């Protein structure tokens, strides 16, 4: 390929990475994770009960699964250029509609569609950017797009707590809706003009065809990622609610736990990209799982402020790293079907994300406590670490 050694200018590289970060900020933080800090307020407004809140979250994760499955079908760059703007438009429209809906059934339906758009974008945007970076020998920079998730978590925390006394009920969605419109327009427009071939090419310039997604290398990676999906989603969905039930009203962690998660999440894509480059992505991933496992377990061992702070710190500083490291390892194992493999992993990830809130709802309705949900998350992350031990190093796999 004659252009595989093109070196982008610092400004061009920064613009592409910022656009990717912004698009993930919009769909994943303002669209998806803002529900976490909103949930205690929606419960307090009488719009939802805790179990209904878990059910609404499950519908969103089901949509995320559907979106990821669609991305498996529409995985080529020419597919992405058609599907990405449609998904972003759907995201913005659904976020606006959420400002008008009070019924649980209506909100569940909207969160389902929101999840579909989120799943498509979360797969396609980073995959398109990664292909652009690989052609320019800058694949190690790919993880930086996930900075948008951490910045978005911080922004969502400020949007929710800063307007908590001004808004109530469905109107609490307005700040996210209004901010999403200009950000979605700019980021989508910038990514659609990336110079990436319509189909993925090999080094010799020939077009890569579909290959098997499951083999000795990818199966343990898939299983590991499944554990990550269930393990991280429980703290990321229910930590603010757990804080509200364990601590007295007015304690700084009631609103501060999510802010703490957001703050520690922001630099983590840079951290895990660096660690992956220094110690290898696979070794870094195993370390990531160990830290995340301890984070989910901390609220079980130390109920109260100590456990909550440790959980926020350890899970917040690792879950984005799990995503970026796994995606890079997957592409290294199957270099000519990166977007398709990414979509398949996100689909499996979303199945376990959907199972987590559903199991939590069953547990709560049976009289259990939220602590039990965090125990389940720790077990899932432990399994993620176990299966990661069986993933081969890409250089060993290709040199066998």
Explain the overall architecture:
This protein has 400 residues and is mostly helical. It has a single domain (10-198, 213-398), classed as Growth Hormone, Chain: A, CATH 1.20.1250.20. The protein is built from 16 helices and no strands. The longest helix is centred in the first third of the chain and has 31 residues, at 104-134. It is globular. Pfam families: MFS_4. It is found in: Membrane. One of its GO terms (cellular component) is plasma membrane. The chain crosses the membrane at residues 12-35, 55-75, 87-110, 116-134, 143-161, 173-192, 213-238, 258-277, 284-301, 307-326, 338-359, 371-391.
Topology record:
Elements: H1 10-33, H2 35-44, H3 50-73, H4 77-97, H5 104-134, H6 147-162, H7 174-191, H8 218-246, H9 252-265, H10 268-279, H11 281-301, H12 305-316, H13 319-333, H14 338-365, H15 370-388, H16 394-398
Helix pairs in contact: 1-5, 1-6, 1-7, 2-8, 3-5, 3-14, 4-5, 4-7, 5-14, 6-9, 8-9, 8-11, 8-12, 8-13, 8-14, 8-15, 9-12, 10-11, 10-13, 11-12, 11-13, 11-15, 13-14, 14-15
């Amino acid at each position: 390929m004659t252009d595989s050694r093109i070196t982008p200018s610092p400004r061009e590289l920064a613009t592409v990475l910022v656009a990717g970060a912004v698009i993930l900020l919009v769909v994943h933080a303002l669209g998806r994770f803002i529900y976490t800090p909103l949930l205690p307020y929606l419960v307090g407004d009488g719009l939802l009960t805790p179990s209904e809140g878990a059910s609404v979250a499950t519908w969103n994760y089901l949509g995320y699964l559907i979106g990821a499955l669609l991305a498996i079908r529409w995985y080529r760059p020419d597919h992405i250029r058609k599907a990405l703007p449609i998904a972003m438009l759907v995201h913005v429209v659904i976020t606006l509609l959420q400002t008008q809906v009070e019924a649980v059934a209506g909100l569940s339906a909207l969160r389902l569609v929101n999840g579909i758009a989120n799943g498509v974008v979360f797969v396609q945007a980073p995959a398109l950017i990664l292909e652009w970076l690989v052609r320019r020998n800058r694949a190690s920079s790919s993880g930086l797009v996930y900075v948008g998730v951490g910045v978005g978590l911080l922004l969502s925390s400020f949007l929710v707590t800063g307007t908590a006394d001004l808004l109530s009920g469905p109107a609490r969605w307005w700040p996210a809706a209004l901010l999403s419109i200009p950000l979605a327009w700019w980021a989508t427009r910038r990514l659609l003009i990336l110079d990436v071939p319509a189909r993925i090419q090999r080094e010799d310039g020939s077009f890569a065809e579909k290959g098997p997604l499951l083999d000795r290398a990818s199966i343990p990676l898939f299983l590991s990622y499944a554990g990550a999906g269930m393990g991280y989603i429980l703290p990321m969905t229910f930590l603010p609610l757990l804080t509200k039930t364990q601590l007295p009203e007015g304690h700084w962690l009631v609103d501060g736990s999510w802010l703490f998660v957001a703050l520690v999440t922001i630099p983590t894509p840079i951290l895990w990209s660096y660690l992956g480059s220094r110690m290898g992505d696979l070794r870094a991933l195993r370390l990531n799982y160990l830290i995340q496992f301890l984070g989910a377990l901390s609220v079980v061992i130390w109920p109260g402020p100590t456990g909550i702070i440790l959980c926020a710190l350890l899970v917040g500083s690792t879950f984005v790293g799990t995503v970026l490291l796994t995606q890079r390892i997957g592409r290294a194992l199957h270099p000519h079907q990166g977007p398709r493999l990414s979509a398949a992993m996100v689909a499996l990830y979303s199945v376990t994300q959907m199972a987590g809130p559903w199991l939590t709802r069953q547990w709560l309705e049976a009289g259990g406590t939220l602590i039990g949900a965090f125990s389940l998350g720790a077990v899932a992350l432990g399994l993620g670490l176990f299966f990661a031990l069986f993933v081969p190093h890409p250089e060993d796999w290709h040199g066998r």
